[in-house]
Write a structure and sequence with these properties.
Layout lengths: L28 H9 L8 H4 L6 H11 L6 H6 L18 H6 L2 H14 L9 H7 L4 H27 L10 H13 L8 H10 L23
The structure holds zinc ion.
Zinc ion binds next to loops.
Length: 229
Protein backbone atom coordinates (compact mmCIF):
# COMPACT_ATOMS: atom_id res chain seq x y z
CA UNK A 1 0.00 0.00 0.00
CA UNK A 2 2.63 2.58 -0.88
CA UNK A 3 0.00 5.17 -1.88
CA UNK A 4 -1.39 5.03 1.65
CA UNK A 5 1.76 6.57 3.05
CA UNK A 6 2.31 9.18 0.34
CA UNK A 7 1.00 12.04 2.43
CA UNK A 8 3.25 11.31 5.40
CA UNK A 9 6.18 13.69 5.59
CA UNK A 10 9.37 11.89 6.51
CA UNK A 11 11.89 14.06 8.30
CA UNK A 12 15.45 13.29 8.94
CA UNK A 13 15.27 14.53 12.53
CA UNK A 14 14.95 12.05 15.35
CA UNK A 15 11.43 10.89 16.24
CA UNK A 16 9.99 12.29 19.45
CA UNK A 17 7.07 11.02 21.61
CA UNK A 18 3.85 12.84 20.74
CA UNK A 19 1.09 11.55 23.07
CA UNK A 20 -0.99 14.69 23.54
CA UNK A 21 -2.71 13.51 26.74
CA UNK A 22 0.49 13.62 28.74
CA UNK A 23 2.84 16.59 29.19
CA UNK A 24 5.88 14.45 28.47
CA UNK A 25 4.37 13.32 25.18
CA UNK A 26 4.69 9.71 26.25
CA UNK A 27 1.78 7.29 26.34
CA UNK A 28 0.59 6.34 29.82
CA UNK A 29 -2.30 4.12 30.82
CA UNK A 30 -3.28 6.66 33.48
CA UNK A 31 -3.78 9.48 30.97
CA UNK A 32 -5.77 7.19 28.65
CA UNK A 33 -7.98 6.07 31.55
CA UNK A 34 -8.68 9.67 32.60
CA UNK A 35 -9.54 10.53 28.99
CA UNK A 36 -12.14 7.76 28.72
CA UNK A 37 -13.59 8.41 32.18
CA UNK A 38 -14.43 12.03 31.41
CA UNK A 39 -18.15 12.64 31.92
CA UNK A 40 -20.24 13.03 28.82
CA UNK A 41 -23.32 15.11 28.30
CA UNK A 42 -25.33 15.38 31.54
CA UNK A 43 -28.42 13.20 31.42
CA UNK A 44 -31.31 13.80 33.82
CA UNK A 45 -32.63 10.24 33.69
CA UNK A 46 -29.51 8.10 33.23
CA UNK A 47 -29.36 6.89 36.84
CA UNK A 48 -33.12 6.91 37.27
CA UNK A 49 -33.90 4.03 34.94
CA UNK A 50 -31.28 1.51 36.06
CA UNK A 51 -32.51 -0.48 39.05
CA UNK A 52 -31.38 -3.73 40.67
CA UNK A 53 -35.05 -4.80 40.67
CA UNK A 54 -35.17 -4.84 36.85
CA UNK A 55 -33.25 -7.04 34.45
CA UNK A 56 -30.67 -4.93 32.51
CA UNK A 57 -31.87 -6.46 29.23
CA UNK A 58 -35.31 -4.90 29.81
CA UNK A 59 -33.90 -1.54 30.89
CA UNK A 60 -31.70 -1.48 27.81
CA UNK A 61 -34.80 -1.37 25.59
CA UNK A 62 -36.10 1.61 27.61
CA UNK A 63 -32.69 3.29 27.40
CA UNK A 64 -32.67 2.88 23.61
CA UNK A 65 -36.24 4.15 23.44
CA UNK A 66 -35.35 7.35 25.31
CA UNK A 67 -32.28 7.80 23.11
CA UNK A 68 -34.42 7.09 20.02
CA UNK A 69 -32.03 4.32 19.05
CA UNK A 70 -34.50 1.47 18.56
CA UNK A 71 -34.41 0.41 14.90
CA UNK A 72 -37.94 1.43 13.99
CA UNK A 73 -38.74 2.12 10.34
CA UNK A 74 -38.52 5.86 10.95
CA UNK A 75 -35.10 5.50 12.58
CA UNK A 76 -33.80 3.45 9.64
CA UNK A 77 -35.19 6.04 7.20
CA UNK A 78 -33.44 8.79 9.13
CA UNK A 79 -30.20 6.88 8.59
CA UNK A 80 -30.69 7.34 4.85
CA UNK A 81 -32.12 3.95 3.88
CA UNK A 82 -35.19 4.16 1.65
CA UNK A 83 -37.63 1.59 3.01
CA UNK A 84 -41.39 1.41 3.10
CA UNK A 85 -42.73 1.97 6.57
CA UNK A 86 -45.78 0.41 8.12
CA UNK A 87 -46.59 -0.52 11.70
CA UNK A 88 -46.68 -4.33 11.83
CA UNK A 89 -49.16 -4.35 14.69
CA UNK A 90 -51.97 -2.20 13.29
CA UNK A 91 -50.95 -1.96 9.61
CA UNK A 92 -52.47 1.52 9.48
CA UNK A 93 -49.64 3.95 10.17
CA UNK A 94 -45.97 4.49 9.53
CA UNK A 95 -43.79 3.05 12.27
CA UNK A 96 -42.13 5.53 14.60
CA UNK A 97 -41.31 5.46 18.31
CA UNK A 98 -44.17 7.87 19.01
CA UNK A 99 -46.67 5.71 17.12
CA UNK A 100 -45.45 2.27 18.20
CA UNK A 101 -45.17 3.04 21.92
CA UNK A 102 -47.83 5.70 22.44
CA UNK A 103 -50.40 5.77 19.64
CA UNK A 104 -50.82 2.20 18.38
CA UNK A 105 -53.80 0.27 19.72
CA UNK A 106 -51.66 -2.11 21.81
CA UNK A 107 -49.84 0.74 23.46
CA UNK A 108 -53.05 2.64 24.11
CA UNK A 109 -54.51 -0.38 25.86
CA UNK A 110 -51.46 -0.78 28.11
CA UNK A 111 -51.30 2.93 29.02
CA UNK A 112 -55.01 2.92 29.71
CA UNK A 113 -54.44 0.19 32.33
CA UNK A 114 -51.50 2.15 33.80
CA UNK A 115 -53.65 5.29 34.06
CA UNK A 116 -56.29 3.39 35.99
CA UNK A 117 -53.84 1.79 38.41
CA UNK A 118 -51.86 4.94 39.18
CA UNK A 119 -54.75 7.42 38.87
CA UNK A 120 -52.99 9.58 36.30
CA UNK A 121 -53.95 11.19 33.00
CA UNK A 122 -50.49 11.03 31.42
CA UNK A 123 -49.09 9.08 28.46
CA UNK A 124 -50.10 10.79 25.25
CA UNK A 125 -46.46 11.09 24.12
CA UNK A 126 -42.94 9.82 24.63
CA UNK A 127 -41.87 12.54 27.08
CA UNK A 128 -44.43 11.55 29.69
CA UNK A 129 -42.93 8.36 31.23
CA UNK A 130 -40.06 10.24 32.89
CA UNK A 131 -42.28 12.89 34.49
CA UNK A 132 -44.65 10.09 35.51
CA UNK A 133 -41.87 8.16 37.28
CA UNK A 134 -40.56 11.31 38.99
CA UNK A 135 -43.99 12.48 40.15
CA UNK A 136 -45.12 12.25 43.77
CA UNK A 137 -45.34 8.95 45.55
CA UNK A 138 -43.56 6.78 48.08
CA UNK A 139 -40.21 5.20 47.11
CA UNK A 140 -42.00 1.91 46.49
CA UNK A 141 -44.64 3.47 44.23
CA UNK A 142 -41.95 5.31 42.24
CA UNK A 143 -40.08 2.05 41.80
CA UNK A 144 -43.22 0.22 40.69
CA UNK A 145 -43.90 3.00 38.17
CA UNK A 146 -40.41 2.51 36.75
CA UNK A 147 -40.85 -1.26 36.64
CA UNK A 148 -44.21 -0.97 34.88
CA UNK A 149 -42.90 1.53 32.32
CA UNK A 150 -39.82 -0.58 31.62
CA UNK A 151 -41.71 -3.84 31.17
CA UNK A 152 -44.44 -2.17 29.10
CA UNK A 153 -41.96 -0.65 26.64
CA UNK A 154 -40.05 -3.94 26.50
CA UNK A 155 -43.21 -5.95 25.88
CA UNK A 156 -44.48 -3.67 23.10
CA UNK A 157 -41.09 -3.96 21.39
CA UNK A 158 -41.12 -7.75 21.88
CA UNK A 159 -44.62 -8.11 20.38
CA UNK A 160 -43.57 -5.93 17.45
CA UNK A 161 -40.49 -8.08 16.78
CA UNK A 162 -42.45 -11.33 17.01
CA UNK A 163 -45.01 -10.00 14.57
CA UNK A 164 -42.43 -8.69 12.13
CA UNK A 165 -39.74 -11.35 12.14
CA UNK A 166 -41.49 -14.57 13.18
CA UNK A 167 -44.84 -14.01 11.49
CA UNK A 168 -46.54 -14.41 14.85
CA UNK A 169 -49.46 -12.08 14.48
CA UNK A 170 -50.54 -12.60 18.04
CA UNK A 171 -51.17 -9.03 19.01
CA UNK A 172 -51.83 -9.80 22.61
CA UNK A 173 -53.69 -7.35 24.77
CA UNK A 174 -53.01 -9.41 27.83
CA UNK A 175 -51.12 -7.40 30.41
CA UNK A 176 -50.72 -10.35 32.79
CA UNK A 177 -47.03 -10.73 31.89
CA UNK A 178 -46.37 -7.09 32.84
CA UNK A 179 -48.29 -7.65 36.07
CA UNK A 180 -46.32 -10.80 36.87
CA UNK A 181 -42.92 -9.23 36.15
CA UNK A 182 -43.83 -6.11 38.12
CA UNK A 183 -44.78 -8.29 41.09
CA UNK A 184 -41.37 -9.97 40.96
CA UNK A 185 -39.61 -6.59 40.73
CA UNK A 186 -41.61 -5.19 43.63
CA UNK A 187 -40.87 -8.22 45.80
CA UNK A 188 -37.15 -7.84 45.15
CA UNK A 189 -37.20 -4.20 46.23
CA UNK A 190 -36.54 -2.90 49.73
CA UNK A 191 -38.11 0.49 48.98
CA UNK A 192 -40.39 1.86 51.66
CA UNK A 193 -44.06 2.66 51.25
CA UNK A 194 -46.53 5.07 52.81
CA UNK A 195 -49.86 4.57 54.42
CA UNK A 196 -51.58 6.02 51.38
CA UNK A 197 -54.44 4.81 49.25
CA UNK A 198 -52.25 4.79 46.12
CA UNK A 199 -49.66 2.56 47.79
CA UNK A 200 -52.35 0.19 48.98
CA UNK A 201 -53.99 0.01 45.53
CA UNK A 202 -50.66 -0.58 43.79
CA UNK A 203 -49.42 -3.40 46.03
CA UNK A 204 -52.84 -5.03 45.98
CA UNK A 205 -53.18 -4.88 42.18
CA UNK A 206 -49.72 -6.32 41.52
CA UNK A 207 -49.84 -8.79 44.45
CA UNK A 208 -46.60 -7.47 45.94
CA UNK A 209 -45.57 -8.97 49.28
CA UNK A 210 -45.50 -6.33 51.98
CA UNK A 211 -42.79 -7.14 54.41
CA UNK A 212 -43.30 -5.89 57.94
CA UNK A 213 -40.50 -3.32 57.60
CA UNK A 214 -42.28 -1.54 54.76
CA UNK A 215 -45.42 -0.66 56.66
CA UNK A 216 -45.83 2.33 58.87
CA UNK A 217 -48.53 0.77 61.07
CA UNK A 218 -51.39 3.19 61.74
CA UNK A 219 -52.19 3.85 65.40
CA UNK A 220 -55.97 3.85 65.93
CA UNK A 221 -57.05 6.82 68.02
CA UNK A 222 -60.52 7.31 69.49
CA UNK A 223 -61.99 9.98 71.71
CA UNK A 224 -63.94 8.73 74.69
CA UNK A 225 -66.21 10.39 77.19
CA UNK A 226 -64.46 11.48 80.35
CA UNK A 227 -65.38 9.60 83.49
CA UNK A 228 -68.36 11.00 85.45
CA UNK A 229 -66.03 12.40 88.10
ZN1 LIG B 1 -49.63 0.65 14.88
Amino acid sequence: MPHFFNHIMVREEQDIPNWILDESGRFTLKSAKIFFLEPGVPCGWGKLIWSSSISPSKTLVLWKDFHERLPTDQHIQNKGLHICSMCTLCEKHEESIQHLFFECSNALHIWSCVRQIFLTSQFPNKDDPLSFIKSDGSPLVKLIKLVVITFSIWMIWRIRNYARFQDKIEVSRDTSLIKYLTCLGGNLSKASMKNALLDFNVIQFFGINTRSGKFLCPIPVRWEFPSPD
